[in-house]
Structure prediction request, 227 residues.
Amino acid sequence: DAKTTQPPSMDCAEGRAANLPCNHSTISGNEYVYWYRQIHSQGPQYIIHGLKNNETNEMASLIITEDRKSSTLILPHATLRDTAVYYCIVRFPQGGSEKLVFGKGTKLTVNP
Amino acid sequence: NAGVMQNPRHLVRRRGQEARLRCSPMKGHSHVYWYRQLPEEGLKFMVYLQKENIIDESGMPKERFSAEFPKEGPSILRIQQVVRGDSAAYFCASSSDRGTYNEQFFGPGTRLTVL
Prediction:
């Protein structure tokens, strides 16, 4: 079972920041937080991952609380193409041996 | 650098036929994962393979399903005697064993329809 809890749906206005929360209260010390998204009918797309420090890349920012029990994915300027289901996943990163366990995710709708 | 490739993109089979789904990982990737997404449901892990080895098949149905990743060529997910409940999108992902974080990169999927 997924180790994360996410709201089932969120709305965001185009051009505004989208802040997607995730609770992972049982995360262990060496587990990372990964975010993927799935745009309608496409394969999931990797977005970002982090351990305990805030991370930023060309797609998004990831804010992890100090106790690591929750995190927020931030899309700074959401566009219509960001409409997708966003999945927060916790896992061990090493060895490529860990399967991804997808929960239900958050369906983000970006409105014009 | 081409991404993960899957073919066919759409596959129609009648009940009782065999379905073969192919996955070519990204260049330099030696780990392949198969996931299934039933209509209106989330993705479920099926099997994880490295070249010529099955590492984790905990998500594979016990019967009719098999997977391989030969030394040469793509990974194959094989479904024998398909039933209507096998209708789903099947996604393949690959990862490298060189990086620390092992992000999985997904293909576009094969949509199987069983008539």
